[in-house]
Amino acid sequence: MSLNSKKFYNLIKKRRSVRDFKNEIIDFEIIKNAILAAGTAPSGANLQPWHFVIIQKRSIKKKIRLAAEIEEKEFYEKKAPKEWLDALRPLGTDKNKSFLEEAPYLIAVFEKKNSIKNNKKIKNYYVKESVGIATGILISCLHFSGLSMLTHTPSPMNFLNLILKRPNNEKPFVLLVVGKPKENCEIPVFATKKKTFNKIATKY
Fold it and tell me: 117 falls in which pLDDT band (50, 70, 90)?
């Protein structure tokens, strides 16, 4: 058990967020299995308050990019406080989100406010917690499979409901950009440094 935990840590610590993707076909079975893995996550009363939309069509990815860039332009030019822009500056990010079209897959994760059970609408509980755990498993499985990704969260993201035809009881949680990194893809050195155990944990 100890060895397995060490193996997993050594694998997952190599995960990186990337923004430059190869336009290369990815076997859909990998994506499907990662979604199924995410679906095993614990949830309040096992109501499983999530929905995953997998986008491969170029036309839909283009619509998402255009809509996201409208929100990102507003963010970078008007909404974002100076402190946040200063924190982002070393990453070199801006309102241009070309990766939304370049990556072979986008996965939109939605959180569901309510579910239908026995033809009856019931409220879901611990929705954000449940969807957050499921998303973590999804990211881990994609990385374990050899893929890279970016967690993209333009604000607001309700344009995803419109483009992807999702109902009002669903709220966008995160947009995962998935694929293989380009050969010349670079990761800022500071982004590879993670806090030590003693900085992130307390043991009694």
Answer: confident
List Cβ neighbours of 20 (8 Å cut-off, separation of 6 or more): 99, 102, 181, 182, 184, 185
What is the rounded CA–CA span in Å between residue 157 and residue 106? 14
Distances (CA, A) of 184 to 72, 79, 94, 113, 142: 25, 32, 19, 42, 21
14-47 tens-digit pLDDT: 999 999 999 889 999 999 999 999 999 999 999 9
DSSP H helices, 39-144, are 58-74, 82-88, 99-102, 127-144
The residues facing 111 across adjacent strands are 50, 171
Residues 53, 110 contacting (CB under 8 angstroms): yes
How far from 58 is each of 55, 62, 134, CA to CA, in Å?
Answer: 8, 6, 26
Q: Do you find a cis peptide bond into 156, omega within 30 degrees of 0? A: yes
Answer whether 90's CB lies under 8 Å from 188's CB.
yes
Percentage above 90 pLDDT, the chain:
81
